[in-house]
Amino acid sequence: MYVDKKFTGRNRPDLVILVRNICPFRGEEKAENSTADPSKELTDKFKEWIYGDAPYLFAYYATGQYVTFVILTESESENIGLNSKRTRSEVKSESLGDFNLGELSQRIRVMNFLRNICKCLLWLKLFP
Asked: 50, 42 in Cβ contact below 8 A?
């Protein structure tokens, strides 16, 4: 099994789904009493965008029973250091939906939401 060093140790997401060596979905989770910010952690763990021309990546972050689904996109490169030729791309997050899994109606909405994400992945021809 190949393990990319960009995703080991502190840079490893809490959840990764791999399909044909492509990661179309990832997530970060924290306990309800945690002071950490899983949304910030989700984008901070990227050292670089390694998804080529992929326009976005599906993701989620959760604190306790509250879940937010997002898409992650590569933003314009920013200059780093004194040398303006060195750049680093940033990863931005855009919310798709917020859910409280403590409520039955919200859990049903999440199931439908995930079903629709799977349809998108089929459309992208990641699955046979």
From this structure: no
